[in-house]
Amino acid sequence: MSGIEGIVGTSTGIERIAGAFARAKAEGRCALIPYLSAGDPDRETSAALIRAAIETGVDIIEIGIPYGDPLADGPTIAAASQRALDAGMTIAGAFALVRDAAGANAPPILLFTYLNPVVQYGVERFADALVAAGAAGAIVPDLPMEESATIRDAFASRGLALPLLVAPTTPLERAVAIGRASDGFLYLVSRVGVTGASRTPDFSWIAERVAQLRGRLGGKPIAVGFGIATAEHVREVAAHADGAIVGSALIDAYAGTRGDEAARRAAAYIRSLRSI
Protein backbone atom coordinates (compact mmCIF):
# COMPACT_ATOMS: atom_id res chain seq x y z
CA MET A 1 0.00 0.00 0.00
CA SER A 2 1.42 3.42 -0.97
CA GLY A 3 1.58 6.38 1.42
CA ILE A 4 -1.32 8.07 -0.36
CA GLU A 5 -3.44 4.93 -0.36
CA GLY A 6 -2.71 4.44 3.33
CA ILE A 7 -3.79 7.95 4.27
CA VAL A 8 -6.92 7.94 2.13
CA GLY A 9 -7.80 4.43 3.26
CA THR A 10 -7.66 5.22 6.97
CA SER A 11 -9.06 8.74 7.21
CA THR A 12 -11.03 11.13 5.07
CA GLY A 13 -9.87 14.56 4.04
CA ILE A 14 -12.34 16.13 6.46
CA GLU A 15 -10.98 13.98 9.29
CA ARG A 16 -7.39 14.92 8.46
CA ILE A 17 -8.31 18.62 8.47
CA ALA A 18 -10.06 18.18 11.83
CA GLY A 19 -7.00 16.40 13.19
CA ALA A 20 -4.71 19.23 12.09
CA PHE A 21 -6.80 21.83 13.91
CA ALA A 22 -7.10 19.61 16.98
CA ARG A 23 -3.32 19.14 17.20
CA ALA A 24 -2.71 22.88 16.93
CA LYS A 25 -5.31 23.59 19.62
CA ALA A 26 -3.76 20.98 21.91
CA GLU A 27 -0.43 22.81 21.51
CA GLY A 28 -2.01 26.14 22.44
CA ARG A 29 -1.71 27.80 19.03
CA CYS A 30 -3.65 28.30 15.83
CA ALA A 31 -3.07 26.16 12.77
CA LEU A 32 -0.58 27.65 10.30
CA ILE A 33 -1.80 27.35 6.72
CA PRO A 34 0.57 28.58 3.97
CA TYR A 35 -0.59 29.15 0.40
CA LEU A 36 1.63 28.32 -2.57
CA SER A 37 0.87 28.66 -6.27
CA ALA A 38 1.36 25.38 -8.15
CA GLY A 39 4.13 25.73 -10.72
CA ASP A 40 5.49 29.10 -9.55
CA PRO A 41 8.00 29.97 -10.90
CA ASP A 42 8.51 26.47 -12.35
CA ARG A 43 7.50 22.93 -11.46
CA GLU A 44 10.80 21.97 -9.81
CA THR A 45 10.86 25.04 -7.60
CA SER A 46 7.21 24.58 -6.74
CA ALA A 47 7.87 21.02 -5.58
CA ALA A 48 10.82 22.25 -3.50
CA LEU A 49 8.65 24.94 -1.91
CA ILE A 50 5.98 22.41 -0.95
CA ARG A 51 8.65 20.14 0.57
CA ALA A 52 10.06 23.10 2.50
CA ALA A 53 6.62 23.94 3.89
CA ILE A 54 6.14 20.32 4.98
CA GLU A 55 9.57 20.25 6.64
CA THR A 56 8.76 23.37 8.70
CA GLY A 57 5.84 21.53 10.27
CA VAL A 58 2.93 23.57 8.97
CA ASP A 59 -0.52 22.22 9.76
CA ILE A 60 -2.31 22.45 6.40
CA ILE A 61 -1.11 23.55 2.95
CA GLU A 62 -3.13 25.34 0.29
CA ILE A 63 -1.89 24.90 -3.28
CA GLY A 64 -3.40 27.24 -5.83
CA ILE A 65 -4.17 26.02 -9.33
CA PRO A 66 -3.07 28.86 -11.65
CA TYR A 67 -5.96 30.53 -13.42
CA GLY A 68 -6.09 33.39 -15.88
CA ASP A 69 -8.97 35.25 -14.20
CA PRO A 70 -8.27 35.05 -10.44
CA LEU A 71 -11.02 37.25 -9.00
CA ALA A 72 -9.99 36.98 -5.35
CA ASP A 73 -6.24 37.22 -5.91
CA GLY A 74 -4.23 40.38 -5.40
CA PRO A 75 -1.22 41.33 -7.53
CA THR A 76 1.28 39.03 -5.81
CA ILE A 77 -0.72 35.82 -6.21
CA ALA A 78 -2.01 36.85 -9.64
CA ALA A 79 1.60 37.34 -10.79
CA ALA A 80 2.60 33.98 -9.32
CA SER A 81 -0.30 32.34 -11.13
CA GLN A 82 0.76 33.94 -14.41
CA ARG A 83 4.36 32.80 -13.96
CA ALA A 84 3.09 29.28 -13.38
CA LEU A 85 0.88 29.39 -16.48
CA ASP A 86 3.78 30.71 -18.53
CA ALA A 87 5.87 27.79 -17.28
CA GLY A 88 3.21 25.33 -18.47
CA MET A 89 1.43 24.43 -15.23
CA THR A 90 -2.01 22.83 -15.67
CA ILE A 91 -4.72 21.37 -13.45
CA ALA A 92 -3.26 17.93 -14.05
CA GLY A 93 0.17 19.27 -13.15
CA ALA A 94 -1.18 20.67 -9.89
CA PHE A 95 -2.69 17.31 -9.01
CA ALA A 96 0.68 15.69 -9.76
CA LEU A 97 2.44 18.09 -7.37
CA VAL A 98 -0.01 17.16 -4.63
CA ARG A 99 0.37 13.46 -5.37
CA ASP A 100 4.16 13.74 -5.15
CA ALA A 101 3.96 15.65 -1.86
CA ALA A 102 1.22 13.65 -0.11
CA GLY A 103 2.36 10.92 2.22
CA ALA A 104 2.68 9.85 5.82
CA ASN A 105 4.64 12.92 6.88
CA ALA A 106 2.67 15.51 4.91
CA PRO A 107 -0.04 17.70 6.42
CA PRO A 108 -3.46 17.81 4.75
CA ILE A 109 -3.28 19.57 1.39
CA LEU A 110 -6.12 21.64 -0.05
CA LEU A 111 -6.21 22.78 -3.63
CA PHE A 112 -7.39 26.36 -4.23
CA THR A 113 -9.18 26.97 -7.49
CA TYR A 114 -12.09 28.80 -9.08
CA LEU A 115 -15.50 27.52 -10.09
CA ASN A 116 -15.02 27.66 -13.85
CA PRO A 117 -12.00 25.29 -13.93
CA VAL A 118 -13.86 22.81 -11.71
CA VAL A 119 -16.94 22.86 -13.96
CA GLN A 120 -14.84 22.60 -17.11
CA TYR A 121 -12.86 19.70 -15.65
CA GLY A 122 -16.06 18.03 -14.45
CA VAL A 123 -17.18 18.10 -10.83
CA GLU A 124 -17.13 14.33 -10.27
CA ARG A 125 -13.87 13.95 -12.18
CA PHE A 126 -12.32 16.78 -10.16
CA ALA A 127 -13.40 15.19 -6.88
CA ASP A 128 -12.01 11.82 -7.98
CA ALA A 129 -8.72 13.48 -8.92
CA LEU A 130 -8.48 15.08 -5.48
CA VAL A 131 -8.85 11.69 -3.83
CA ALA A 132 -6.37 10.04 -6.23
CA ALA A 133 -3.80 12.77 -5.50
CA GLY A 134 -4.17 12.38 -1.74
CA ALA A 135 -5.64 15.87 -1.28
CA ALA A 136 -7.93 16.62 1.65
CA GLY A 137 -10.29 18.81 -0.38
CA ALA A 138 -10.43 22.15 -2.16
CA ILE A 139 -11.31 25.79 -1.66
CA VAL A 140 -13.38 27.45 -4.39
CA PRO A 141 -13.59 31.15 -3.41
CA ASP A 142 -16.15 32.20 -6.01
CA LEU A 143 -18.58 29.36 -5.20
CA PRO A 144 -21.84 30.86 -3.86
CA MET A 145 -23.48 28.87 -1.08
CA GLU A 146 -26.71 28.68 -3.10
CA GLU A 147 -24.88 27.04 -6.01
CA SER A 148 -22.66 24.74 -3.97
CA ALA A 149 -24.88 21.65 -3.67
CA THR A 150 -23.44 19.73 -6.63
CA ILE A 151 -19.84 20.23 -5.56
CA ARG A 152 -20.65 19.74 -1.87
CA ASP A 153 -22.38 16.43 -2.61
CA ALA A 154 -19.49 15.20 -4.76
CA PHE A 155 -16.99 16.15 -2.10
CA ALA A 156 -19.01 14.88 0.87
CA SER A 157 -19.47 11.45 -0.67
CA ARG A 158 -15.67 11.18 -0.86
CA GLY A 159 -14.94 12.68 2.56
CA LEU A 160 -13.37 15.79 1.02
CA ALA A 161 -13.33 19.17 2.75
CA LEU A 162 -14.96 22.16 1.05
CA PRO A 163 -14.37 25.29 3.16
CA LEU A 164 -16.51 28.25 2.12
CA LEU A 165 -15.61 31.92 2.46
CA VAL A 166 -17.25 34.66 4.50
CA ALA A 167 -16.42 38.28 3.67
CA PRO A 168 -16.55 41.31 6.00
CA THR A 169 -19.60 42.52 4.09
CA THR A 170 -21.51 39.27 4.69
CA PRO A 171 -24.49 39.77 7.06
CA LEU A 172 -24.17 37.74 10.24
CA GLU A 173 -27.08 35.37 9.62
CA ARG A 174 -25.79 34.57 6.15
CA ALA A 175 -22.28 34.10 7.57
CA VAL A 176 -23.70 31.56 10.01
CA ALA A 177 -25.45 29.71 7.17
CA ILE A 178 -22.24 29.66 5.12
CA GLY A 179 -20.30 28.43 8.13
CA ARG A 180 -22.73 25.58 8.68
CA ALA A 181 -22.48 24.62 5.01
CA SER A 182 -18.66 24.62 5.08
CA ASP A 183 -16.86 21.31 5.40
CA GLY A 184 -13.50 21.27 7.18
CA PHE A 185 -13.47 24.86 8.39
CA LEU A 186 -14.89 28.29 7.69
CA TYR A 187 -12.59 30.65 5.78
CA LEU A 188 -13.03 34.12 7.27
CA VAL A 189 -11.81 36.85 4.92
CA SER A 190 -10.17 39.51 7.07
CA ARG A 191 -10.96 42.53 4.91
CA VAL A 192 -12.76 43.78 1.84
CA GLY A 193 -10.86 43.35 -1.44
CA VAL A 194 -8.34 40.91 -2.84
CA THR A 195 -5.43 39.07 -1.25
CA GLY A 196 -2.22 40.92 -0.43
CA ALA A 197 0.15 41.71 2.40
CA SER A 198 0.20 45.51 2.07
CA ARG A 199 -2.67 46.31 4.45
CA THR A 200 -2.95 45.23 8.07
CA PRO A 201 -6.15 43.33 8.86
CA ASP A 202 -8.69 44.81 11.24
CA PHE A 203 -8.19 42.48 14.19
CA SER A 204 -10.86 44.12 16.31
CA TRP A 205 -13.41 43.26 13.63
CA ILE A 206 -11.98 39.74 13.32
CA ALA A 207 -12.34 39.22 17.08
CA GLU A 208 -15.94 40.44 17.02
CA ARG A 209 -16.97 38.34 14.03
CA VAL A 210 -15.31 35.17 15.34
CA ALA A 211 -17.05 35.65 18.69
CA GLN A 212 -20.39 36.05 16.90
CA LEU A 213 -19.86 32.88 14.88
CA ARG A 214 -18.11 30.66 17.39
CA GLY A 215 -21.07 29.46 19.40
CA ARG A 216 -23.31 28.97 16.38
CA LEU A 217 -21.06 26.67 14.34
CA GLY A 218 -20.87 23.72 16.71
CA GLY A 219 -17.12 23.97 17.25
CA LYS A 220 -16.26 24.11 13.54
CA PRO A 221 -12.80 25.68 13.10
CA ILE A 222 -12.51 29.21 11.75
CA ALA A 223 -9.41 30.20 9.78
CA VAL A 224 -8.55 33.78 8.87
CA GLY A 225 -6.93 34.79 5.59
CA PHE A 226 -6.13 37.85 3.42
CA GLY A 227 -3.42 40.16 4.72
CA ILE A 228 -1.89 37.84 7.33
CA ALA A 229 1.83 38.51 6.90
CA THR A 230 3.80 38.59 10.16
CA ALA A 231 4.30 36.65 13.37
CA GLU A 232 2.39 39.39 15.17
CA HIS A 233 -0.53 38.91 12.79
CA VAL A 234 -0.50 35.16 13.46
CA ARG A 235 -0.45 35.85 17.21
CA GLU A 236 -3.43 38.17 16.83
CA VAL A 237 -5.35 35.56 14.84
CA ALA A 238 -4.48 32.85 17.38
CA ALA A 239 -6.08 34.91 20.14
CA HIS A 240 -9.46 34.53 18.47
CA ALA A 241 -9.56 32.00 15.61
CA ASP A 242 -8.31 28.50 14.89
CA GLY A 243 -6.12 29.04 11.82
CA ALA A 244 -4.03 31.67 10.04
CA ILE A 245 -3.74 31.54 6.25
CA VAL A 246 -0.64 33.18 4.76
CA GLY A 247 -0.21 33.58 1.01
CA SER A 248 1.03 36.79 -0.57
CA ALA A 249 3.72 37.49 2.03
CA LEU A 250 5.09 33.96 1.61
CA ILE A 251 5.27 34.35 -2.16
CA ASP A 252 6.96 37.74 -1.68
CA ALA A 253 9.54 36.05 0.55
CA TYR A 254 10.95 33.91 -2.27
CA ALA A 255 10.15 36.20 -5.22
CA GLY A 256 12.84 36.34 -7.86
CA THR A 257 14.54 33.11 -6.76
CA ARG A 258 14.33 29.49 -7.81
CA GLY A 259 15.21 26.01 -6.61
CA ASP A 260 16.97 25.54 -3.28
CA GLU A 261 17.30 29.28 -2.67
CA ALA A 262 13.55 29.79 -3.04
CA ALA A 263 12.88 26.86 -0.70
CA ARG A 264 15.37 28.19 1.84
CA ARG A 265 13.74 31.64 1.86
CA ALA A 266 10.24 30.19 2.10
CA ALA A 267 11.21 27.95 5.02
CA ALA A 268 12.88 30.84 6.85
CA TYR A 269 9.81 32.99 6.38
CA ILE A 270 7.42 30.28 7.58
CA ARG A 271 9.56 29.68 10.66
CA SER A 272 9.52 33.43 11.38
CA LEU A 273 5.74 33.30 11.70
CA ARG A 274 6.19 31.24 14.86
CA SER A 275 8.77 33.53 16.44
CA ILE A 276 6.26 34.97 18.92
Characteristics of this structure?
276 residues; TIM Barrel; 49% helix; disordered N terminus
Question: Could you explain how this protein is built, in words?
Answer:
With 276 residues, the protein is of the alpha/beta class. The protein has one domain (3-272): TIM Barrel (Alpha-Beta Barrel). Strands 4-3-2-1-8-7-6-5 form an eight-stranded parallel sheet. It is built from 13 helices and eight strands. The chain is globular, with a radius of gyration of 17 Å.
How many β-strand runs? 8
CATH class: Alpha Beta
Biggest sheet statistics: 8 strands, parallel
Q: Could you give the order of the helices and strands?
A: HHEHEHHEHHEHEHEHEHEHH
Number of helices: 13
Q: What is the radius of gyration computed over CA atoms, rounded to a whole number of angstroms? A: 17 Å
Total number of distinct structural domains? 1
Quick summary:
By secondary structure, this protein is an alpha/beta fold.
